[in-house]
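Appendix B. Chain record.
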Amino acid sequence: MSPVESMDVMVSLCKRRGFIFQSSEIYGGLGSVWDYGPLGVELKNNIKQAWWRAVVMERPDMEGLDAAIFMHPDVWKASGHVDGFTDPLVDCKSCKRRYRADELKDPKKCPECGGELTEPRMFNLMFKTFMGPVEETATTIYLRPETAQGIFANFDNVLTTMRRKLPFGIAQIGKAFRNEITTGNFIFRTREFEQMEIEFFVKPGTDQEWHEYWIKERLNWYKRFGINEENLRLHEHGADELAHYAKSCFDIEYRFPMGWAELEGIANRTDFDLRQHSQLSGKDLSYYDEQEKRRYIPYVIEPSAGVDRSLLAFLCDAYREEEVRGQKRVVLELHPALAPIKVAVFPLLKNRAQLVELAKKIADDLRGDFRTMYDDTAGIGKLYRRQDETGTPWCVTVDMQTLDDQQVTVRDRTTMEQIRIPIERVKPLISEYLQKAWQKP
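C-alpha cells predicted for this chain:
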C-alpha cells in the first residue's frame, strides 16, 4: 500500500503548508500547471542539488550542461519529434471530453457519459510558437519536449573542451513542455515540468553492461535519500512499449496513491540520436578511439528522471500519521538533506522580550549555514506540530532557564527526543547531523 491513502491528502497538505499551489488560482487556475510555494521551491531545489551532487560532483566521469529551451527546429526533425511525437486523440460526441485512445478500455465508448467517440487522430505533443515578429512557417520553433536533445547537440562541444574520453556522461536539469491530452494526479503528469537527465556515452558493445549499471545506480539514489525499497520496482518495456530510439528500457516505478507508475526511465538509446544529428546537420559527431585507432558513433544510456514526480514520491513516502497523547500527529520524515527547513527556533514564551531577542539571535546565527525558520505565533506544542508536518528535522527552544545556563532544548522530528545543549553547540551539532546525512550508505 502507498503511505498516502489518496492524492487528496497530499494536495491538501501541499496547499496548507505552502509546498504547491494551483497556477493562476485567483483566476480560476490553469489546468495541470502548478506553482511551487516557499517550502516547495526549497524541497525542489534540494532534490536537484542531491541529484547533481550524486551524478556530477561525486563522479569523475560526468560533466554538466544547461542548454537553451529554444533550439533550431531541425533538432526536432532529427530526433523524430516532428513526425513521431504523437498520441492518438479521440473526442466524445456527447460530452465533448477528450481522451488518449490508447488509454481507453473501450475505444468506441466514452468512459464518462457512455457517448460515442470519434475516430482517433494523431496529435503532436510539442508546443509550437514563433520566433520573431511575423507568424509564418519559416519562423516556427518549439518548446522542447525533453532536455536530452540539447545534450546531443552539444556532445562535440563538451567532448572537445573538457578533453573527455569514453565512457563519460553529460548531465542536465531543465524545463520541458508537452501538450498532454490527459493530465492529472496532481503534479504527476503536467504540461510544464522539469527533468533531471543524463546522457552517458559508451563504446558500442559495452552498452548492456552500462545499462545494468545505471539501473542499479538510480535505484540506489532513491533509496539513499529515503524512499522505502518496498515502494520501488522495475518495469521492463515490452517491444510494443519501446520508443523509436530505444534498444531497451527499464522504468523505475513508485507506488503512488493511484498505484504503480513511472518515476524514472533508464533507456539504451543506441547511437540513434548522434547518428541522426550527424546526418541532418552535416557535423561529424563520431568519436575517435585512440586505443583502437578508429572512429565510431557512441551508444548512449539515458537515465531520465522527473523533478516533479521525484518530489511527489519523496513527499508521499515521507508522510506519516500517528496518535500522540490522544491527538493525531502528521509528520513528514523527509531525509534531512531534502527537508525544506533544516532547523526552527522558538521562544517558549513570546511575551518575554529576553527570550524573543535571544531566540531571534540564535536563528540569525544559524541562517548563515542552514535554511532556518523563527516562529513565535503559537504555543510550543502547536509550533512543533507545524514543523513536523513540513519535515523540519530539528527544533530549538529557548526557555527561561536558558537565560541562566545559556543552554537550549533541541528536539528531533522523527523520535521527538529532546536534548539540552549549550547554545554554542547548536550549529556544530546540526552541521554534524547533516554531514552524516549526505554520506553514502
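Further analysis of this model is presented in Appendix C.
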